[in-house]
Amino acid sequence: MAVVKMQRLNLCGLNSERKEILEKLQAYGMMEINFRKKDEKGLKKMDTQSEKAKFEKEAASAENAIAILDKYAPAKKSLLDSLAGKDLIKDSVFKEAVAKQDEFRGSVARIIRLDKEITENRSRIAQLENQIESLVPWEALDMPMDTAGTDSTKVFVGTFPGKVTAEEVLTALKTQKPSLEAVDFETVSTDKDALYAAIICLKEEAERTEDVLREKGFAKPSVCPAKTPTEKQEEARAEIESCKQKIEYLTQEITDLATSRQDICLISDYYRLRAGRYEALGKLPQTKNTFAVSGYIPASDSEKLKKELEERFTADVEVEELGAREKQPVLLRNNKFSASFESVVQSFGLPKKGEFDPTMIMSVFYFILFGLMLSDAAYGALISIACGIIILKFPRMDQGLRKSIQMFFWCGISTLFWGIMFGGYFGDAVTVIARVFLGKTVEIPALWFVPLNEPMRMLIYSFVFGLIHLFVGFGLKGYMLLKKKDVVGFICDVVAWFMFLIGLILMLLPTEIFYSMSQMKFDFPASVNMLAKVLTVAGAVIILVMAGRRKKMKIPIRLALGLYDLYGITSWLSDILSYSRLLALGLATGVIAQVINQMGSMLGNGVLGIIFFIVVFIVGHILNMAINILGAYVHTNRLQYVEFFGKFYDGGGKPFAPFKSETKYVDIEEVH
Length: 672
What we know:
The chain is α+β, with helices and mostly antiparallel strands. It is built from 24 helices and 13 strands.
């Protein structure tokens, strides 16, 4: 359980070697560039934003091209390929692709252009289909919709609101003074929303006629083609077919370019690396001929990197210890088992300065508590086998995902252990299968006891596990106080509470209340009973008197603060009760598993009954596993974050962010 010790590495080099040095630091990937204000004083920095933006734009274009290829010519992948991680390629292959970057940039531009043309053609198809749909009500019209009339007549083509009828329009025209009799009204079609019509009148009466029509809600159509509606529809359909053929041709062109996918991935990563270097370059103070680099590096790597840099480059490299007030970034380093649980700590918060890494101790409790909540041997075996196969099959998996799967592998082992202790194998599947299908009585006895048969006993043990968990957390608080040489705080804030709590527990155990709950009888000698009372009273007095010691207040106020601190016993009670979830989730897993087994065996031992049992068994237990694995994960996290960390740990440390090769598609095998 360790936070990696950091040192500061300072480098001064020649600008002529700057590119190679940055490439070396990026490939090494174990130095976080960070300058103190005093190191930058009097030095200038290069403005690299435009260069960085240029390479980011090139990387984004390449990614866009890859996304287009994935859309039109997707690479064949299995469901588990997402676990495989990035491909590892040789540095020589990467350099070959970089040497041909202009050729691949041309492919990128072509793929993007082809996709744009496909989009434009699809947009045109949608536009034409809307046009065809808009002309459907006008299909009966046997003249072009933009017809204006003849030398002596005027034609109006348009719509009226659905509530208006042809008779109403004609009546309105004829009742004008003087009357507009020389008007021909032709209804083209009607629907619930509109009346589609063509009106012909004398040219000299056109203005008066149009006024009447507008009073009735007349509106000209948005599209008035110079052809009949039917002819225009046929023309649009022909153009749609042409667009579809173009799309098919363009799609094939993109598919043919799929052979460049790997190379485009390589240059995308190349541009991303270049952008990262220019970002780092913008942080470096420099003069006309020299530049400086400063930052954090793990102490175990500092001398190695210093030696490599000095041997390869004309550079002055210095390693120094961090100042007392300097807050180092946090990198955790644990054994293989505990490292699997680092994500739990990271999700809560990395250790801040002065705190230690709680991962190792927390991982042991996480391992135990997860298994207690799931507590079925068959489920645990399946989890560990599945996770083990994934870990072995995909050695290049992303490290964060790998650690999470390793964590579930260990949690599966814990679940297997507690399942054997409690006698759970797919619930009572062995007993049910033997009874229903074999006509025999077979039971696998629990090595300890069956929680379903003795729930109160399990509840008591849940509280015991909880007390151990909480006491260890509180003990770690004491360790941190001693580390800070706060002996008074250790005695008043930790030892006093241990005395008070242990005394209360010793006083509770011999009582009838505890016996009625646990059926466990404790008969302590008088000396132990007296010790319990002394511990309780002494602990309470110390808390009462010393709780307000850090505040310069009058004695009555300090005593009031002490009473309030003693009231904190209620939070201890609620924390201990939280561990009843160990019982609740364990029982839920077992009860649901038994119900599934009983449901599956309802049709007896015939052929139909066997088939029904298999289906119900598989589906039911998969669902039960999924639900209860999620429940165990969530509630185990809660017990760590709220109950355990709440006793001693704050977090809030800054994660170590080294300058390294941030690639998206491949990992590059460096040649040393």
